[in-house]
Design a protein that fits this description.
Layout (H helix, E strand, L loop, with lengths): L5 E8 L2 H15 L6 E5 L31 E8 L3 H10 L4 E4 L1
Antiparallel strand pairs: 1-3, 1-4, 2-3
């Protein structure tokens, strides 16, 4: 009998760019539906991440002043228990600082 239970996997990223890449990995490599993936600030403050990247970086190399760099970004999704190891690897490849499951 196959194990069809689900697990919530959560990963923390330093930049919004890395979190967005992780979402693409979840959708394209693992077939997880976008509405089943959640992105939020790791704190109660609005944040684009803890470091400038992508659109948060200015052409001069520094951080834009209008990008709220108030902390890390959390990506979470409910996945099949059989996908845990593969999803953990993908999240790590996308730049996750921490990955946990419950």
């Amino acid at each position: 009998m196959a194990d069809d239970s689900t697990t919530t996997i959560t990963a923390t990223f330093e930049t919004r760019e890395a979190a967005d890449l992780a979402v693409e990995h979840l959708v394209q490599q693992h077939g997880i539906s976008r509405p089943d993936i959640f992105i939020q600030s790791a704190s109660n403050r609005n944040s684009a991440g803890a470091a400038p990247s992508g659109g948060d970086a200015s052409h001069g190399g520094g951080a834009r002043q209008d990008a709220p760099l108030e902390g890390e970004i959390v990506v979470s999704a409910d996945i099949a228990s059989s996908q845990v190891a593969a999803v953990q690897r993908s999240l790590g490849d996308a730049g996750a600082l921490r990955v946990s499951q419950r």
